[in-house]
Amino acid sequence: MLRTTVALTALCTALSGALPDAAEAGRQDDTLRVALAEEILNLDYNYTTKREYIIMAELTDATLFELDPETQEFGAAVATDWNWVDDTTLDVTLREGVTFHDGSELTAADVAYTYNWIVSEESEAQAKGTIERWLDNVEVTGDLSLRFHLKSVYPLVLRDMAQRVKLRPEGAYEADDGSIDESAMASDLIGAGPYKVVAFEPGQEVVLERFEDYWGERPAIENVVVRNLPDIGTQQAELMSGGVDWMFKVPLDVAESLGNTPQATHLSGPDLRVGFLVLDAAGYTDEEGPLTNVKVRQAVNHALNREEMSKFLIGGSSEPIHTPCHPAQFGCTEDIPAYPYDPEKARALLDEAGYGDGFRMDLWAYRDKPAAEAIAADLEAVGIDVNLRYVKLASLNQARAQQEIPAYFGTWGSGGTADTAAIARVHFSSESDRNLSGDGELTETVLAAEKTADPEERKRLYEEALTTIAEQAYWAPLFSYSQNYLVNPELDFPLSPDGLPRLDESSWK
């Protein structure tokens, strides 16, 4: 760490003296240059999932509704009005004059086609897993009106419409000969968002231009160039020389060091991502293993110093948590049992459980290695012999699917959705291999919360589920994340409370 800081200091000193006008580069040609470590290979968010693709979709795409990140309320976007005919029938009226990037006017037929395609048997869209849970079909009732027929009561319909499905022209996934072409929008995207794609080199660069016929408020900056720069050192050098105006997922030490130079500003904002330890309470890896004992799982919880991990390893606006969800999410009550850091209590619980001499445990992790190492060290300190298996995410996913993982350090960002449903279903449904609790009643409670439109009943059900998770110590919740950015000092980049970067809201100072 010291060597990294020294190197950064030397780089900052050299560049700050040599490049006094670097911060003006973006303003001069009205082009916001963005650095992403993750390769952009597919422009169609209906077929992708990662945060980088969400950032791109915010620039290029339109949805029926919009989410206000301040209030978490849904409002009009392409849809201007909506009415629940009954619990499973929703009528939607569209805005007049919405135009796709190819110049065609958006109609009800386009919206119906998009949704019906995603839930069709032929579709392999990533959005399908979210939408097919609740959508039966969409019926066109007029040039600018539709009727959505739901399979069952589902309280998160507007959320999914606002965040998951990007609207496409009718026939977008059909080739000229009438055959299916699921990759039709991957390189030649036809969206209806504030920017249109004018050039795309997969894995290298995306060039966007402000769409002057955009139906909403037009962005202040005319052009956006998204560059794929996997190496963070290259990103740093480009930022300091004026070749990049914005970078995120910046390690805290790097952000603080470069943020002290005239060429960069360090911004730190909230993020709905949380970190946690998942424990094999069900005994998938060992039917009579230590982790099947609730006292052992409680001991693991008491052994972890969440406060120090949050403060020194994550930093910024990160906070220690004791909930298996982000406290800002709807339904994420904090009025549940907590396990304060207490190594002596952890040792006593291990002794009561018959593991006074400790036991050996494989701990899997795929990101934030310093945090994974801190978890291992805390567990070692109370007598648990930890074998830290730090692997690629694909390897962890494969091992988890085969029920070979007794414990893993995971994170979840809920797709920027401030609702406990966005984390609970994925991690505590019996359909998910992420659920290591083996608790069928817990699954029923979690899913029941998605089958009522009554907000108070949803809160009650989530409180019941979260209390069970805490009492049984199925997880060891750790901390919330903080998002660190480095930006051109001349760039005004507003931070959203849900942690999603909205680059279209940027402007020059």
UniProtKB/TrEMBL annotation:
GO terms for cellular component: ATP-binding cassette (ABC) transporter complex; outer membrane-bounded periplasmic space. InterPro entries: Peptide/Ni-bd, SBP_5, SBP_5_dom. One of its GO terms (biological process) is peptide transport. It is found in: Periplasm. Pfam families: SBP_bac_5. Keywords: Signal, Transport. GO terms for molecular function: peptide transmembrane transporter activity. Residues 76-421 form the Solute-binding protein family domain. Belongs to the bacterial solute-binding protein 5 family. This is Peptide/nickel transport system substrate-binding protein.
